[in-house]
Amino acid sequence: MLNGFLGILYREFSVYRRKAAKQILASSISPLLYLIAFGYGFGNKVDIGGMSYITFLVPGLIAMASLNQSFSIAQELNITRFYFHIFDIYLTAPVPPVQIVMGEAVYGMFKGFLSAGIIFVLAFIFGVKLIINPMFFPAIIIHTLIFTTLGITVAMLVRDHGDQATVNNFIITPMIFLCGTFFPIDRLPVIMKWLVYFLPLTYSSKVIRATLTGGAVDYNYLLIMSGFAIVFFITSLLAVKRVEG
Amino acid sequence: MEILTASKLIKSYGKKTAVNDVSFTINVGDFIGLLGPNGAGKTTTIKMLTGLAKEDSGKIFYNGINFKSDPIECKRLIGIVPQNSNVDRDLTAYENLYMQAILYSIPVNERKKKINEILDFAGLIEYKDKQVKTFSGGMKRRLTLIRALLHQPKILYLDEPTVGLDPQIRRSMWELILKINQQKSTSILLTTHYIEEAERLCGKVMIINNGKIIIEGSPDELKKGIGHFVLEEFVDDAIKEDFFETKETALNHLKDCVNSCKIREVSLEDVFIKLTGKRINA
Predict the structure, then answer these.
(1) I need a surface site. Which of A35, A190, B13, B270 has the fewest CB within 10 A?
(2) Domain identity same for B158 and B92
(3) What ipTM describes this predicted complex?
(4) Which candidate in B11, B90, B133, B135 is best for mutational testing of the A interface (most A CBs within 10 A)?
(5) CA distances in angstroms from B238 to A44, B227, B235, B259, B261, listed in the order given
(6) B260 shares a domain with B163
(7) Among candidate residues B19, B82, B83, the one with its CA nearest the CA of residue B56
(8) Using CB atoms, which residue from A6, A84, A88 is nearest to B102?
(9) What pLDDT is attached to residue B281?
């Protein structure tokens, strides 16, 4: 009954198993550099809202790294679609599009969780004390679901690798820098502050930070994140249906 | 009994009509060739029949089931070997087949046995745990072929299955394809631009050009339609061809040749030239 979902997971995890060590190492590098550069550099000298900058930074890095990893499904799908044509196997199999989306989404979310786990380990090594609120778990699930389904949508809509790079440059990179990962958004100019509220990372970085630093979780933000997740799940489903004949 | 009915299929990309009003049926056990030059509409036809491209108009039925209204049920009946081999190079041969077994809902307790049997059938059993990235082109094609057979499809689409293979490997692929058609009673639609391939394998051939099927019949019927022998006369850079019913008549005309001349048996290429004025592999 879930043959498509399970088949895709089997494929993705069989491939991942062989590349896990390399991928884990690769996905540790940039958060490690951020922690050294921003955390060690002025982590204890700068204070944001009563917490050290490094404590402020770690939840932002968790949001950023899990976004990057779950969205990177777009690049992987791109390669399987345009170069190796493996995606055609799913499209010609007796599999409904919703199971294709589910299979890829769970894999993308797994990658997001793993990168969040890596940052927890790095934060522990760096001596950053986090207070984990149980709401962190639904928050990270919704957060990774948002970006993996956005990744699937983009992968189905782009026509080649070039288009993919454009999406990364114009949407993902600005979002990473402006949506409260590295500094509070109230320090942005008014227009930009207004604009970043249209981007999902603004909400997830706030919620993730609150669940890891003892802050109050804004449930309205969690609801908005759920809204983004539902919208992107639907767009990814429509996009897969569009590439299917 | 009809396994596939394709009716009035039309597909355009922009202003170019890739497939133009194509209709045909395939019966159980048929081995049909779709022969035509590159860009004739062969792959687009296969894409529509397998759910990789949406037809602009027309209808497709598998076993009487409308493909559009029940694609999942129809796809269970289909096996496909695409033009570009899409076995997963990061997986082993066994893992590629196991993924297929899951996707096509083969019961868990049957998977291992079926996979080993089919690997043995294709002579790949000793390579089952090797990653596909270490395989030769011929081995990849064989694996693609048996992957399409694992769920025992009623109809198998082979889209240029031997393109790019050297002649020796191509012949071994032909043997495997014939074995599948004969032993497994699977209907086959094969697209090719290799004349010899269509003549050697197919019981019936449809010649497609500019998106239209221009003629269909058994290779013998098609050839008989233009004569049994051809007299080729080499005039400057061109070849003038005349067709004759018997070798004797052709020999009689050979006497009148003033240039270099040759008599040979008619091929499907001659049928194509006669109908379109150009060569398939031009």
Answers:
(1) A190
(2) yes
(3) 0.90
(4) B90
(5) 86, 21, 5, 11, 12
(6) no
(7) B19
(8) A6
(9) 67
Q: Do A94 and B100 touch (CB under 8 A)?
A: no
Domain enclosing residue A231, as ranges:
3-243
Average pLDDT of the segment spanning B126-135: 96
Residues B163 and B70 in one domain: yes
The CATH number of the domain where B20 resides is what?
3.40.50.300
Is the separation of the CB atoms in A205 and A179 below 8 Å? yes
Domain count, chain A: 1
The answer to whether position B282 is within a domain reads no
Domain span at residue B251 reads 227-265
Residue in A14, A84, A92 nearest the CB of B75: A92
How far away is chain A from the Cα of B40, in angstroms, using its nearest Cα? 20
Tokens of A140: 């990270």
Q: How many domains does chain B have?
A: 2
Same structural domain for residues B180 and B254?
Answer: no
Nearest-Cα distance to chain A for B243, in Å, is: 44
Q: Which of B52, B44, B35, B50 is nearest to B16 (CA)?
A: B44
Chain A interface, best mutation among B10, B102, B115, by max A CB count within 10 A: B102
Q: A91 at the B interface (CB within 8 A)?
A: yes
Min Cα distance A157 → chain B (Å) is 15
Give percent of chain A with pLDDT exceeding 70: 98
Q: Is residue B57 part of a domain?
A: yes
Asked whether residue B102 falls in the same domain as residue B186, the answer is yes
Confidence of residue B218 (pLDDT cuts 50, 70, 90): very high
Q: Are residues B235 and B135 in the same domain?
A: no
